[in-house]
Design a protein that fits this description.
Order of helices and strands: HHHHHHEEEHEEEHEHHHEEEEEEHHHHHH
Structural class: alpha+beta
Shape: elongated
Low-confidence stretches: 498-505
Strand order of the largest sheet: 3-2-1-4-7
CATH topology of the largest domain: Nucleotidyltransferase, domain 5
CATH superfamily of the largest domain: Ribonuclease H-like superfamily/Ribonuclease H
Number of helices: 17
CATH architecture of the largest domain: 2-Layer Sandwich
Radius of gyration: 46 Å
Number of strands: 13
Strand content: 15-25%
Largest sheet: 5 strands, mixed
């Protein structure tokens, strides 16, 4: 098959010479090829078009097209090949694969969905969807992914569940982050939003309707099993999972706590909203400033009915639910929170000063009389038992402690051992520090503390011993002297005299 350039050269050679053979010599091909292309041009046919030649599989094309249509373009070529072989086809599987691929391409061309560009307007549409989050402590988190259609502003919030109170809290946090309320919110047909479909009409969950009425917006849902109708939020979920969920492609480390995941989500939102969008050529955070002028005012208080019942936080940073005390962060002491049970867990929600609702605690269901306490809700406690450093409260104590760390150790150990007349012994140590050096007395006090010697005159005895060791020159054995006993006593062994024998008798 000649390409377009070669065909043009053949036709130009024929127009120049007017002879098939002469044009063939100029173009470097057979004169029959020149004649064929000249006749095709004269008949108004496309010379570059491939001429179809009859194939052995052509008689099976209707069956192949039927199978492709019945399967919706999903049938495999090897399955088609087995079918037509049973009908008498003797060709190879490669021919079948090419023919099936052509039939599928024609089927998709006839079934292709045509999209009309969605021209967004500021202040109209907010979309949200859910994405699978990372596993933290053996429990899988979920990512709330919201997307403001006109400005492309994204909000990602990690949560533990997808219940209606969680949706309300995430929706409230999203609206407060964007600074207003759009006219519509588009999402999936989950039971928290749509309870049923009757004759193609979505029946809304009455509780989500109350939430939407509180904020002054309308909840819309996409066509069931049609994620393409909310592609903006789908893209937000895909981008968030690619950047936040640890995988082999991003080499992210596992999150040690839920707080670290929240910090990562905030950082992710700042990055994606602060960089130039490839379609609008502007930063979403800059476009959001313009879109806020078209958003509805945001209520001061969130929709707290869905958060459960109110509880007052006691002075010990706990709340009482069904006669069980549960801890909350100590910063919430003497404030009001909302508590609700989700399965076997108690979820506590608090409303911040700016009106944002957030989950502050989550506990397993407890039993009456057994408080459920989380140490992370309290500030670090000072270990008073571990802090055993003596502190002087008088001039006498200060004089003793100024001797050194050995004196402090001696005082601590003497108190633990219940030593008698501690103050008089401290005064004795101060007096000895004036006769001896302070370092020597401090060393003696440390030795007494380690060995547990707190009796009378023990300190002076240890001090004299240590000073004596320091003053006396140590004795070192020379090479001329040995501590090994001699053998002279064995010289007379076995040689006793008669006199010795008589004396022995």
């Amino acid at each position: 098959m000649k390409n377009s350039r070669e065909i043009m050269e053949i036709l130009e050679a024929y127009d120049l010479t007017g002879s098939y053979r002469a044009a063939a010599e100029l173009a470097g091909c057979d004169h029959h090829t020149v004649a064929r292309y000249v006749k095709m041009r004269a008949a108004g046919q496309e010379p570059a078009a491939r001429r179809h030649r009859d194939r052995a599989i052509d008689i099976y094309l209707p069956k192949i097209e039927e199978l492709v249509h019945r399967s919706g373009g999903r049938i495999r070529a090897d399955v088609v090949h087995k079918r037509i072989v049973a009908m008498g086809f003797t060709g190879g599987e490669r021919t079948t694969r090419r023919t099936v691929a052509e039939a599928k391409a024609q089927f998709r061309a006839g079934q292709r969905r045509i999209y009309r560009p969605w021209i967004t307007e500021p202040g109209l549409w907010l979309q949200w969807d859910w994405g699978d989050g990372p596993v933290i402590g053996g429990r899988k988190a979920t990512l709330w992914c919201a997307w403001l259609a006109w400005s492309r502003f994204r909000v990602v919030i990690p949560v533990w569940d997808k219940t209606l109170p969680t949706i309300t809290a995430c929706l409230d946090a999203t609206l407060r982050r964007i600074g207003g309320v759009p006219a519509y919110a588009l999402t999936d047909n989950e039971k928290t939003v749509t309870t049923d479909h009757i004759a193609g009409i979505a029946v809304r969950n009455p509780e989500i309707v109350e939430v939407a009425r509180h904020y002054g917006m309308t909840i819309r849902t996409c066509i069931p099993a049609d994620p393409e109708s909310k592609g903006g939020s789908e893209a937000t979920v895909r981008i968030a999972k690619a950047d936040l969920v640890p995988k082999d492609v991003n080499l992210l480390e596992e999150y040690r706590s839920f707080a670290s995941l929240e910090a990562a989500c905030r950082t992710f939102c700042e990055e994606v909203n602060g960089r130039v969008h490839r379609e609008t050529r502007r930063k979403p955070v800059e476009m959001l400033a313009e879109e806020r002028t078209r958003l509805h005012p945001l209520p001061r208080q969130p929709f707290t009915v869905a958060f459960g019942t109110t509880r007052r936080v006691n002075w010990d940073a706990t709340i009482s639910v069904e006669a069980v005390r549960y801890s909350v962060p100590h910063q919430l002491i003497d404030t009001r929170v909302w508590a609700r049970f989700h399965g076997d867990e108690l979820v506590v929600t608090a409303v911040e000063a700016d009106g944002t609702a957030r989950e502050v605690a989550r506990h397993p269901r407890g039993a009456a009389g057994s408080p459920v306490i989380d140490d992370a809700h309290y500030p670090p406690r000072e270990d008073k038992l571990a802090d055993r450093t003596p502190r002087a409260t008088s001039a006498e104590e200060a004089a003793f402690l100024m001797i050194g760390p050995g004196a402090a150790t001696w005082l601590v150990e003497a108190g633990n051992m219940g030593a008698r007349r501690v103050k008089s012994k401290m005064a004795e140590a101060v007096a000895l520090s004036k006769l001896y050096s302070t370092a020597e007395v401090d060393r003696a006090l440390g030795t007494a503390a380690v060995t547990g010697r707190f009796s009378e005159k023990d300190l002076l005895s240890i001090l004299d011993y240590q000073v004596g060791l320091t003053a006396t020159e140590p004795t070192r054995a020379s090479e001329d002297h040995s501590l090994q006993p001699g053998t002279s006593a064995w010289a007379r062994f076995g040689t006793t005299t008669s006199t010795d024998h008589e004396d022995s008798i």
